[in-house]
Amino acid sequence: MDWGAIFSNAAVELISPTTAAYALAALGLAVHFGYTGLLNFGQAGFMALGAYGYAISILTFGFPVWGAFLVGVGASVIFALILGIPTLRLRADYLAIVTIAAAEIVRLLFTTNSFASVTGSANGLSGYKNEFAALNPLAAGSYGFGPFENNAYDTWLRIVAWSIVILAALFVWQIMRSPWGRVIKGIREDEDAVRALGKNVYAYKMQSLVLGGVFGTIAGMIFALPRAVVPSNYQTTLTFFIYAILLLGGAATVLGPIVGSMIFWVLLSFFSGFVSRAVEAGWFPFMTGVQGSQLRFILVGVAIMLIVIFRPQGIFGNKKELAFVR
Amino acid sequence: MKPIQLARRFTPRMIIVLLGVLFAALTLSTFSAGSAHADEVGTEYEFALSGNVKYSGDPLEGVRITAEGGGYEAEVETDAEGKWKIGVPEKDTYKVTLDEDTLPEGVAVEDGANEFQAEFDLIDSVSVNFFLGEDTRETTSFFNQFLDRLVNGLNFGLLLALAAIGVSLIFGTTGLSNFAHAELITFGALMTLVFSGFGLPVWLAIIIAVVLSGALGFTLDAALWKPLRRKGVAVIPLMIVSIGLSLALRYLYQFFFGGGTSQLPGTGQADLKFGPISISPIDIGSMAISIVVLLGVAYFLLRTRIGKATRAVSDNPSLASASGIDVDNVIRIVWVLGAALAGLSGVLWAYFRPGVSWDMGFQMLLLVFAAVTLGGLGTAFGALVGSLIVGIFVEVSTLWIPSDMKFAGALVVLILVLLFRPQGILGRKERIG
């Protein structure tokens, strides 16, 4: 068994753009769920808006990178307002059902054949990377070392992605220490008490929903840059994986989503590498290679259950800072 | 853009046609003002697109064909033998379109594929064929289509209701929004597939599947949900546990059954016609089973002692407990009942879709949630009403919106209802903020 390849493939995931995208999306979810107590199950919808907003702006309208970026962010702000207006006054589980439904509506809109000329229907979109690659200041060649060695475009993408993640994390860290953050955390602990203090709980929740949603949207753009935009990537399962990452790291933490994402992807890659090679080597005679790749999703599900039951605050969470709203 | 080129070339056959009075009268409608009947255009060019338009062996005359591409555009009508030919200046890709309005009554291009991308590669002439079939769209009036969709929607709504009642009762008694209900639905269909695969008759396989589903509900409650309730885990962590369970079970199904779709025995029977409504014997059986089972559930909830206790727990668990109702027992019964109903719903869903696949329950889950929320969370009869509305809406809406968007339509309605009546249709007005 080639342990070296398994480990180096797993190490690649440590700083891959996909890991960064999941970390950023989970950070947005931390703002929603961990800090404000909003059960947003539509993060996949925000990510889809980012990816499609960016890709369609460039492919159909020929916008520059910054214009496409703004289109995606604008779309997600509008989406957050549409979601928030009917549901933020209602109980938490209503928001969960409405967000999950809205994310599915977004995905179905991008999947339907009716708009195939713009969205590419089920085949999705590709060929929107040149504009981003043109901004690359790095000379052609390879950078990094060992498993982290990449060509100029991939290095540039990693630098941009992780810079955004770090900036977002610093921003969340600071804003949660500010008076605004204290109100937000107060809403999570006891909404009525905050209301009694004369704060407009509805407006604060809405701001939180927009902020976390914008993080999700930018994550969707980062997620789309190393691959094509395909609607089936933005299913509800994506949201569940981001929840797994968030719960793993700790819902009400800044570092939790980032480290959680790294652990999630490294472990997932290690596990699938190990299982596929073990199946090849005949260690698991009852399993085919395809089954091996499904085994890891079963484990993700079991992991979500175990974390919630036995360590609800996650790896970095503080037990005193309640990991869950009641 | 170059003007449309219409060649005016009189062929000998054309002259004969003009001389024959009767023939001329018949073909009069295909003449455009001032232009002769042109079955070949652009003959000066060396490359050509050609074809032959026939419907069940008979040539169709006067069907308009247009070709467009490389800045060139031409139009032609088929001759008495159904033939047409368009000469083109360059080897390029041409979009060849058949004008469906010029087809005779009752004939249409199959699958609406009246456009064809014709490409020249090595040869100088490309033949383009359109596949014509009976036009079913124009033979059905709007009202008849509506009736047909309505019956379909009723069928779908009834099977949704079977699953939704379980979700609603579990929510009412435990406060849990059970995402793993999707996997209970899939479980029923998968077990039917397995046992009918053993050679058992379908009805027996369905009964075994429903019993096993109930057993699964019992096991889940005893092994997972009851200990968690004892531990005092709050509602939202419980919901996330159910999401984890849903993921784990779903991929477990895929692990064992693969990613493909299989059919239950008896799927795809010919439709029976009742006036405008075409319905298969399976659909009739499905509706009959749903109605009987739903009536049984209604009797259980309204007339039996334990059913009344269930509604009491659903209404107010602590008050029910204080008045001597064994809440744990009620919750256990709700889990068994809910899971068995979900399993049955899965079997019917497998016939409705049709097909059994590992994620079939998850495809339906959001509609079940929409139905439960529409009817009012926690009310069993609200779930029934909500399901019928969602089922009928999903099917009838395909008259106006593309069918790959029909689920989205139902979800939009869900959001709109929450905007104006958050407690649902049958829900009691209370503070849910």
UniProtKB/TrEMBL annotation, chain A:
Protein name as annotated: Branched-chain amino acid ABC transporter permease
Major site of localization recorded for this protein: membrane
Membrane-topology annotation of the record: Multi-pass membrane protein
GO cellular component, one term: plasma membrane
CDD domains: TM_PBP1_LivM_like (cd06581)
Subcellular location: Cell membrane
Keyword Magnesium on entry: no
Lineage of origin: Bacteria, Bacillati, Actinomycetota, Actinomycetes, Micrococcales
GO terms for MF: branched-chain amino acid transmembrane transporter activity
Keywords tagged on the record: Cell membrane, Membrane, Transmembrane, Transmembrane helix
